[in-house]
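C-alpha cells incoming
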C-alpha cells in the first residue's frame, strides 16, 4: 500500500508541473517571423541593429579629383535581409583623417553638398540605412579629392569670375584694364563688365571683393555704383527688375531693389540714416554682398575681406518675385546714350572674385 501511495503522489506532481509550465504563454517558444527581422536590439559584430545590407558608394569614389565645386554623393539602395523595407539613409562627409565634417539624412540615394569644400584636399564619405532606432551597417568608405580653384565660368544660374588672371567670362564695355593678382580696374564711370545668366536667379547672392575705394567728397555726390543687375537691356534707372549697390562720394552705403512693378512693396531703397557713412581707404579690401532671399533684400559690407570687420549690414522686406528675363549682372553700372541719368560706375575701383549663385560663396572665391 505504501508503494502505491508513493507512485500516486509522484504522478500528481508531474501533472501539476506540466500544467504550471503550460499556463504561462510567454514561456512558450515561437518560431521567428519575417516582420521581426527588419530591426531588433541585438547588435551584430559591426554594431548594426538593422537586418539590412550595407549601401554601396557609387560616386565619387577612388580618390580622384572631382570636376565640380560641390559634388553629389550617390549610393545604391539597402535591402532588408528577410523582407522588403523602406529605409532612410545617413550619409557622412569626413576629412582625410576620418573626422566628421558634415552629415545628412535622406530618403533618397543622393546627397548634393551645399557648403563649400576646401580646395584640392582629400575627403572620405560613407552611408548606412536606418529604420527608426535601428541602424544598418556602414558602407565601405569612399574617397575623392576636391577640385582645385576652378577657372571662371557662367553655368545655369551661377557665375564665378576670378578676374585675377587677366581675363573675364563676362563682356567688358568701355576702358578697363587688369592688374595681375588684384583684379580688373574700371578706368571710367562709363565702364562696366556684363554677364548674362542662362537661367534667372530668383533667389541668391551677388558678392565680390573690391579695392581702391575712398571718400572723395563731403556729400553723397557723386553717386557711384559698385554692383548692379537688371532685366535685359532696358535703361537701368527705369528697369522693373533693378538692383544697384552704391558707394557714394562721402562713403555712404546706398542701394535700390525692384522686384517687378505689379505689387505694392516691390520697390525698396535706403533713405536718410539708412545710408551709413563708411570712412573707406584705397588700400583696404571690401567685401560687398547683396542677397535676395525669402522676401528680404540685404546688403553686407565687410572691411578687410570676407572675414573682416562688418561695417554695414542692412536689409528690407520686399514683395513679388525677382525674375528678370534675361537676367543681366554687372560690375559697375550699364549706361547707353539716351538712358535717363548718366554714367555712374565707380571709377577706378578694382574688382575680383565675382560670385553670383543660389549657393553659398566658396572658400576659393575669398582670396
Amino acid at each position: 500500500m505504501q508503494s502505491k501511495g508513493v507512485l500516486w503522489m509522484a504522478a500528481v506532481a508531474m501533472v501539476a508541473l506540466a500544467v504550471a509550465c503550460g499556463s504561462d504563454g510567454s514561456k512558450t517558444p515561437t518560431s521567428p517571423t519575417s516582420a521581426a527581422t527588419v530591426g531588433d536590439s541585438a547588435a551584430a559584430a559591426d554594431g548594426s541593429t538593422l537586418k539590412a545590407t550595407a549601401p554601396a558608394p557609387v560616386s565619387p569614389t577612388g580618390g580622384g579629383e572631382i570636376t565640380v565645386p560641390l559634388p553629389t554623393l550617390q549610393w545604391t539602395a539597402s535591402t532588408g535581409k528577410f523582407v522588403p523595407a523602406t529605409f532612410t539613409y545617413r550619409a557622412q562627409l569626413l576629412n582625410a583623417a576620418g573626422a566628421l565634417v558634415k552629415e545628412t539624412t535622406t530618403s533618397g540615394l543622393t546627397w548634393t553638398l551645399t557648403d563649400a569644400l576646401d580646395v584640392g584636399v582629400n575627403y572620405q564619405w560613407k552611408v548606412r540605412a536606418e529604420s527608426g532606432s535601428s541602424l544598418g551597417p556602414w558602407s565601405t568608405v569612399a574617397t575623392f579629392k576636391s577640385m582645385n580653384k576652378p577657372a571662371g565660368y557662367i553655368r545655369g544660374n551661377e557665375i564665378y569670375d576670378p578676374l585675377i588672371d587677366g581675363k573675364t567670362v563676362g563682356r567688358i564695355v568701355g576702358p578697363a584694364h587688369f592688374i595681375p593678382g588684384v583684379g580688373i580696374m574700371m578706368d571710367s564711370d562709363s565702364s562696366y563688365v556684363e554677364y548674362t545668366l542662362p537661367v534667372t536667379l530668383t533667389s541668391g547672392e551677388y558678392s565680390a571683393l573690391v579695392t581702391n575705394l575712398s571718400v572723395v567728397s563731403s556729400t553723397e555726390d557723386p553717386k557711384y555704383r559698385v554692383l548692379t543687375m537688371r532685366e535685359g537691356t532696358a535703361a537701368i534707372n527705369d528697369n522693373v527688375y533693378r538692383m544697384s549697390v552704391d558707394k557714394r562720394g562721402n562713403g555712404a552705403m546706398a542701394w535700390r531693389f525692384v522686384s517687378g512693378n505689379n505689387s505694392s512693396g516691390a520697390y525698396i531703397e535706403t533713405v536718410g540714416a539708412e545710408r551709413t557713412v563708411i570712412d573707406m581707404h584705397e588700400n583696404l579690401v571690401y567685401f560687398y554682398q547683396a542677397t535676395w532671399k525669402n522676401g528680404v533684400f540685404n546688403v553686407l559690407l565687410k572691411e578687410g575681406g570676407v572675414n573682416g570687420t562688418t561695417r554695414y549690414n542692412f536689409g528690407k522686406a520686399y514683395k513679388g518675385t525677382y525674375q528678370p528675363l534675361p537676367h543681366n549682372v554687372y560690375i559697375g553700372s550699364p549706361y547707353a546714350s539716351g538712358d535717363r541719368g548718366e554714367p555712374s560706375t565707380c571709377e577706378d575701383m578694382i574688382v575680383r572674385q565675382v560670385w553670383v549663385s543660389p549657393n553659398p560663396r566658396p572658400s576659393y572665391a575669398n582670396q
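note: Confidence is low (pLDDT under 50) at residues 1-37.
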